[in-house]
Specification:
It is built from 17 helices and twelve strands. It is α+β, with helices and mostly antiparallel strands. It folds into three domains: 140 residues, no CATH class; 131 residues, no CATH class; 151 residues, no CATH class. Strands 1-2-4-5-3 form a five-stranded antiparallel β-sheet, sandwiched between helices. A five-stranded antiparallel β-sheet has the order 6-7-9-10-8, sandwiched between helices. A two-stranded antiparallel ribbon has the order 11-12.
């Protein structure tokens, strides 16, 4: 029975997981049948383009180029594939025709010969062109990728005062080239993987072979091997499936859209995961102190960088603590407030129908609603809405005695200090309410218990086998040089503590 008949008799539909099983079938030697086989695999897909042609000297040399419209560069196909075959005067039909075309005619930099239908199908789906030759049971898979991509621009979420202005795009190979330009060494390794049984999204594991901790790399590969999902459209699909401490509000996997940041992480011995179709790149392991590090810290003088980092840490502590401490003092420990301030707060609260805890929750929730609305609206409208909404609603609530004026000030300071460090936005929102409710029940003791619980949680976490707080719990200077404050480059001469091969930085 011919291969074409077998394809027509059996279903070519994907299974429940979206995988099309072709059973390692091979092509036949007749051109017409091979075309029908590929068309049968991609039936009802009208973007599959078929271009049949023959050699002008020997019309027995018949070929067919198949590709998906919009996935290829037409110039490459026309000038490097079709035209050379048509115009070549040395071709004749024989058993070696396809090898002659492969080695002497096609003028592209990446070609592969294969008769396996699985490889041919994957090549077409990834933007390659498949060339079929009459009389051959193999095909030539030609790299003709040429779809449109977004220009390389600076990421909006990671703008810097100084340093490079490049950002990743949605194209995997472009992102790899941006990293390769930063680290010019054969020690830089790229290993490709595919995720999603239906989406077949390509990804790349990137690391420096002499610096990476092989245990971290093996653990990452072990977790990635367990991923079973229909489609992976963004790195967050992967993050939720492989992260440590699934229920923790803190990130245990780093993300960035800047090639310089990823390059610096690789130089510290980390592993990067780059996914096709998204400009966000993952890094592991990820430590707690990285939440407060910014790319500008390493492009500015270390004095100013240290001040900025200290303010980000202080802002994190303030934004989760201010509502809870205010709640504790005004409800349980009024004797700890200066008399004049206590009288002012009591006077402002007269006429307000709600207790302090209800006031605080209402204002915090209202702020989150305004912030979320501003993010989802168009840029110009969102900024105006956030400013006008906060001013108008806050002033009207105070005038109507719905909310007290001190509470508006408390929530405003809490909101501002929360915006100083967007990396911990999710954790901040969660901890803010947990600390508030703990203080509402037990006063300052509830706040103290919440702080202790937070410390226990942080010190018990790991990221791919590395202790989450390893760099801030060390007492050695070389392991503390880039934590709360950044030391001068003169003193930053060793890798982070999680790199077992603690190689001294070359001067």
């Amino acid at each position: 029975m011919s291969l074409l008949k077998k394809f027509k008799e059996k279903s070519t539909e994907p299974d429940d997981k979206g995988v099309l099983h072709l059973g390692g079938e091979k092509l036949e030697k007749e051109l017409g049948r091979n075309i029908e086989i590929i068309e049968q695999i991609f039936k009802d897909d009208e973007t599959l383009i078929k271009r049949e042609f023959e050699n002008q000297k020997d019309n027995k040399v018949k070929c067919c180029a198949l590709f998906f419209d919009g996935m290829i560069d037409n110039r490459i196909i026309n000038e490097s594939v079709i035209q050379p075959i048509i115009a070549n005067t040395g071709l004749s039909k024989n058993d070696e025709t396809i090898d002659e075309i492969l080695s002497q005619v096609i003028a592209t930099n990446s070609v592969e010969k294969s008769g396996n239908l699985d490889e041919i199908s994957q090549g077409l789906l990834h933007g390659d062109t498949v060339l079929l030759v009459d009389g051959s049971s193999s095909a030539i898979i030609i790299n003709t990728k040429g779809w449109q991509t977004r220009a390389i621009t600076e990421p909006d979420n990671e703008k810097g005062l100084r340093g490079p202005r490049e950002g990743f795009t949605e194209a995997l190979l472009i992102n790899l080239s941006l990293i390769r330009r930063k680290i010019l060494t054969p020690d830089l390794k790229f290993k490709f993987r595919t995720f999603g049984t239906r989406s077949n999204t390509k990804a790349c594991i990137c690391y420096l072979d002499s610096l990476v901790d092989k245990e971290v790399l093996d653990e990452l590969n072990r977790r990635l091997d367990k991923i079973e999902i229909d489609g992976v459209l963004d790195v967050n699909y992967i993050v939720e499936l492989i992260k440590d401490s699934q229920m923790s509000p803190f990130k245990t996997i780093g993300v960035s859209e800047r090639p310089d940041v990823i390059a610096s992480k690789l130089l510290e011995g980390r592993v990067a995961i780059i996914l096709d179709g998204t400009p966000v790149v993952l890094t592991v392991p990820y430590l707690f102190i990285e939440n407060f590090q910014a790319n500008d810290d390493y492009y500015l003088n270390f004095y100013f960088a240290s001040i900025g980092r200290f303010l980000r840490i202080l802002g994190f502590l303030m934004t989760i603590s201010i509502p809870a401490v205010y709640m504790s003092f005004t409800t349980y420990h009024r004797e700890m407030i200066p008399t004049d301030l206590a009288l002012s707060i009591m006077e402002a609260h007269q006429g307000v129908p709600f207790p302090t805890i209800v006031e605080c929750v209402i204002m915090l929730v209202l702020f989150e609603i305004i912030r979320e609305t501003g993010l989802r609206m168009p840029t110009n409208i969102g900024q105006a809405l956030s400013i006008v909404g906060a001013l108008v609603i806050g002033q009207a609530a105070v005038d109507a005695k719905f909310i007290s004026a001190p509470m508006v000030i408390v929530v405003a300071v809490t909101a501002i200090t929360g915006l100083i460090n967007p990396k911990v936005k999710g954790a901040v929102v969660t901890l803010r309410f947990l600390f508030l409710f703990a203080s509402a029940m037990l006063g300052i003791y509830g706040y103290a218990f919440a702080c202790i619980g937070l410390l226990i949680h942080l010190f018990s976490m790991k990221s791919f086998g590395v202790i989450y707080t390893s760099q801030i719990s060390s007492y050695k200077f070389q392991e503390f040089k880039d934590n709360v404050f950044r030391a001068s480059w003169e003193y930053m001469i060793t890798r982070p503590i999680f790199v077992k091969k603690n190689i001294v930085r070359k001067k």
